[in-house]
Structure formats: C-alpha cells, structure tokens
Write a structure and sequence with these properties.
With about 375 residues, the chain is of the alpha/beta class. It has 14 helices and ten strands. The strands form three sheets. It has a four-stranded mixed β-sheet, with helices on both faces.
C-alpha cells in the first residue's frame, strides 16, 4: 500500500509504488496478467483507459490487462475477478492493483461524482451519498433503539486504531465530545461519522502456488439501485447474499472469524455490516460495539486498520486495502495494531455504491 490521504503525486505514481511493493513482497519480477481497479478516474483525474495506461507505466506490456469497477467495492471486486481468473487455470499469478486520486477536486465536486452511483430518481430529489446513508442510519436507529453513542464509539475506536497505522489518512485520536460536537453533515451523521476523500493505492500478487495465506471463501451480491425498491433500510441484502456464498465456500461459520475489516464509509455501516455478515443478531450489533467487543483487544476486532473512516477511503482502493490489512494481521506483521492472539480466519466486507454491489472475502492462515 501507499499511505492514504492527500498526496501531490499522480494516480499512476501511487499505483506504481503499490505495485512494486507488492511484487517485491511476493518475490516476483513478472506476472501473467494485471487486473486494475479505479472507480472514477475519468471524473477525478481526467484519465481513461486506465488499465492499459497503468500496465504500460509499470513496464508490463504485453501482459493482458483489464479494469473492473463496482463503485466503492472496486478494490474487492478486482480481487474477486483475479481469483476466478486464476481458478480457470489460464494464469499462475496476477497483479491486482487498485487506486484513486480524489483530493484534486473540491468536496462538492467530489461528492457529486460519488453520488452518480445512486439512483437517478433519488438524485433528482436531492439524494447524495451522505443524505441517503443518513436515511439508512435513522431507520436502523429507530427500528432497534440504537442511540448516537454507538455511532460515536465506532468513530472513536477506528481513529484510535488508525493512530497505530502508518498508512492511515488520519493518525490522531478523537474523543466522544469531539465527535458529538463536529459539524452536522446529514442528520444524524456528523463529520466524524463520515469517511474522508483520500488519495492512495493498494496492490496484491495472487498466485495458484500454495502460500501461507489462502482464499477460503468469496461471495458477491447485488441489490436494487433505488432505496425505494428495497425490502429493508436496516440491512444490506447484497451483503447477506455475499456472506452466504463466502461461508459456504469456506465451510465455516461466522463464529470462526478472528478479525474483520467491515466497510465503514459511514459509522452506522460498520454496525449494520457486522450483523449482515453474521457476527451478531439483527438489531444487536450496536450493543456489542458499546461493550467494546469490536476493539483490538476485544473478542472480535473490527477494523484494526482504522477502517475507511480513519485509514481513509480512496474509493477504488479501499476494498483491496481491507484485504491487505487482513493478510498482514494473519501474518502477524501489522505492527503496533497487531491483534495479540493466534489468528486463523479473517473476513472483509466491501460495499459498492449504497449497498448495491457488496463483496465478502474470507482468508485463512494455513501456515
């Protein structure tokens, strides 16, 4: 990974650094193919044909390359796509590379680009990503008696984790008062309930060779673009579909997961995500958050990286960054934020759009 956060470097430079780091870590100087992920470089930086451009920049011509995009779950989707390409038998190793450069634009312009993944009808009614996320948050809080203090606890926890992460956008702690008095973005979401606009890149080399960390399960589900068409606002059915597929493939139950990275572009999404992947019963995760169960020292650490909330959220790269954090945790080399127990299984859950293309990945330490 590169460090996430505002950068004066170009997107291709960030992606180059991540790619070189991954290939060095893997001990390879060549790959059979390149899968590139970026959500919207055409709008953020004016660059198109990004997969060929990056492959050329890396000096990997004439290797086959393609781009995959599923909004903010793009980083997980390219991992998913590379997995099946390797499983086909046509490739032995693939460079999986994701990035986004977002901070060159004003916040309003970037918010407009991010909102383009939403239902056109809901956008015409003024819907933005924070506004519709606030509707989801309010629905969950009303249905399950969840107070603002649970959202605040997620923000405080993830900032505390990010302090220990040298790759994080925000490397400072916040207390409850700072969160609760921050600017209101869309009621009930305040500034510290929302992930930032970030620059950054992430990369992994995947191989068919037997390695200490293996893919145990992968699942992918989609949902209706419009919130108005969905059966529930308090859960993402696309995550539940992906979860069922991933755990069936892995042959384990959610209770076997030792560490997780859950998509927390907004703090209530971490709470909902923990329920959707089966960690807690519907409507109860917020209580477990308040009990400290999801902290690094708790029984089920969630987002030890700091999550999208504090590690940062370069939208095309976040899903892959989650997977990298799990790899580091399973290897035992996550530095100051390393979970102090034997880890066998780690899970990531990545959300594309407002829950429209969600991916669950389970990794296993077989060393």
């Amino acid at each position: 990974m590169t460090k996430f956060g505002p950068s004066d470097r170009r997107l291709e430079e960030l992606m180059y650094d991540a790619a070189v780091s991954a290939m060095t870590d893997a001990g390879v100087d060549d790959v059979d193919g390149v899968v590139v992920g970026a959500m919207s470089p055409e709008s953020f930086t004016g660059d198109s044909n990004i997969s060929a451009f990056i492959t050329d920049y890396l000096g990997l011509v004439p290797k086959p390359t393609l781009r995959i995009e599923t909004a903010s779950s793009t980083g997980a989707a390219i991992f998913d796509g590379a997995f099946f390409a390797l499983a086909s038998g046509f490739f032995k190793n693939i460079l999986v590379l994701a990035g986004e450069k977002m901070t060159t634009l004003p916040t309003g312009a970037a918010t407009k680009i991010l909102s383009e993944v939403l239902s056109p009808q809901e956008r015409r009614q003024g819907g933005t990503m924070p506004a519709l996320a606030a509707l989801v948050a309010r629905a969950y809080m009303s249905a399950h008696g969840c107070g603002r203090e649970a959202l605040t606890r997620v923000a405080v926890k993830n900032h505390a984790n990010a302090v220990k992460n040298p790759y994080a956008h925000f490397q400072y702690a916040v207390d409850a008062q700072r969160v609760e008095t921050s600017k209101m973005i869309s009621d009930p979401l305040r500034l510290y309930d929302c992930s930032p606009l970030s620059d950054g890149a992430a990369a992994i080399v995947m191989t068919t060779d037997k390695m200490p960390i293996r893919v145990a399960g992968i699942g992918h589900g989609t949902d209706y673009i419009s919130l108005a068409q969905r059966d529930s606002l308090t859960s993402f059915s696309s995550t539940r579909v992906a979860t069922q597929k991933a755990f069936k493939m892995a042959g384990i139950k959610p209770s076997k997961i030792d560490v997780a990275e859950i998509h927390d572009a907004f703090t209530p999404f971490e709470i909902i995500g923990c329920e959707d992947v089966g960690f807690y019963e519907p409507g109860t995760a917020w209580k477990h958050v308040l009990d400290g169960e999801t902290e690094i020292a708790g029984p089920l650490p969630v987002n030890p990286s700091g999550g999208l909330k504090a590690r940062g959220h370069p939208v095309g790269a976040s899903g892959l960054a989650q997977i990298i954090e799990i790899v580091w945790q399973l290897r035992g080399n996550a530095g100051a934020r390393q979970i102090d127990k034997r880890l066998r299984y780690g899970l990531t859950q990545s959300v594309g759009g407002l829950g429209t293309s969600n991916i669950v990945t389970i990794l296993e330490n077989v060393a």
